[in-house]
Amino acid sequence: MVEPEIAFADAQFGMDLAEDLLKNVAQEVLKNTEKELAFLSEKHNLDLPLRINNFVKMKFTRLNYQTALEMLEKEKQNFKNQNIE
């Protein structure tokens, strides 16, 4: 559990930590599941190692809550539950 360890950290630190955690998991998947990724890539015609590598290299976009709500409001017709609040 991560939350108690960062109880007094700011939101930026929390977002950085979450990004690092996800990227670390992705790197471990790449390192430890080479055969499985090759099988799935071939079966589903995807280059999963490349996609995971791209995920690891990308910088996450950071949005404030209001901006996220505005973006969701513009796209709500694409959601089954359109109650955006």
Can you walk through the features of this model?
The structure is a single chain. By secondary structure, the protein is an all-alpha fold. It has one domain (8-78). The chain is 64% helix and 0% strand. It contains four helices and no strands. The longest helix is centred in the N-terminal third of the chain and has 22 residues, at 11-32. The mean pLDDT is 89.
| Biggest beta sheet summary | none
- Which blocks of ≥5 consecutive residues have pLDDT under 50? none
Distance between the termini: 29 Å
| Proportion in β-strands | under 5%
What fraction, in percent, of the residue positions are helical? 55-70%
Class from secondary-structure proportions = mainly alpha
Keywords:
64% helix, single chain, 85 residues
Which SSEs are present, and which pair or pack?
Layout: H1 11-32, H2 34-44, H3 48-57, H4 65-75
